[in-house]
What we know:
Blueprint lengths: L9 H15 L3 H7 L3 E5 L27 H6 L1 H20 L4 H11 L3 E6 L5 H4 L5 E3 L2 E8 L5 E3 H11 L9 E3 L3 E3 L20 E5 L8 H13 L2 E5 L6 H12 L4 E4 L12 E3 L3 H4 L44
Parallel strand pairs: 1-2, 1-9, 2-3, 9-10, 10-11
Antiparallel strand pairs: 4-5, 4-8, 6-7
Amino acid sequence: MKRVFNPPTHEVQRDVAERQRMSEHATLHDFIDRHRRLFILTGAGCSTPSGIPDYRDTDGQWKRAQPVTYQAFMGEEKTRRRYWARSLVGWRLIRQALPSDAHRALSRLEAMGRTELLLTQNVDRLHQAAGSERVIDLHGRIDRVRCMDCDARSPRDELQDDLGRLNPDWFHLDAAEAPDGDADLEGADFLSFVIPPCRRCGGMLKPDVVFFGENVPRDRVDAAFGHLDKADAMLIVGSSLMVYSGFRFVERAVSLGKPVAAINLGRTRADALLALKTEQPCESALSFLLGSRAMSGSIQPARLKHDLSSAFASPVEPERSREQHGAND
């Protein structure tokens, strides 16, 4: 009987290709040891051990209602009242958060001279608190406030004082913590909440972060691309990459032939593009960097289980916003 040859399915072909890529870098420490100038992209998985909640589950789906959009914040007074009332309560958590072992491990990697750039999608500044200096805050800083009229920046603590003075009944409310300094104030009536104006010009204040639906500043993106071009590999730490503002750096790295590894619990948007994936908590996967044997030369950590499953961007590439169907970033 004549045998019929059935060509492998796309899924089988992809699995074979993934296994071939995995054989090149059997473990995370091999990957880091092999590549001397890493472009590191971090997300919420670095900060969840610090007590800051994330947006998404292990399948990349929303855990809660989607965050406020730039368009809603700028266009609706009621949205701004709701945002700042929740922020008044939630700011206490993010202000008191301390770096996790993942932050400290990445700071150690920089001190060893192995980091080209740490590009973080987080807004909490915990990488800087851990000692990292080669950092770009892709989505901005929650510890600063920006006036949308005069463009002045001011400390978020300063605004907290004004919010508490104008809204004393709200100041000591308790609520469940939410990502990025937010808090779940269910059933509250925000009509009475008073938003202070800019102390300099009386204009509208906004946190100095990139909201969903808002463009990341072009010069920030270009600076990050320039560092990526000089790196020899990319490492993703704690992000599902569902937001294009982060995923585009993976696309760029792959287009330049640079290998990409990821540490993340669950699915990422880049799974089919990865040379290596480690599904462990970030602080566990990177713990070898904090060991006594991690020296400035070759890295000698314990073996980790892996999963088999300045040049600038082209001027014709369109800038894209932080998508509303965004990520655990």
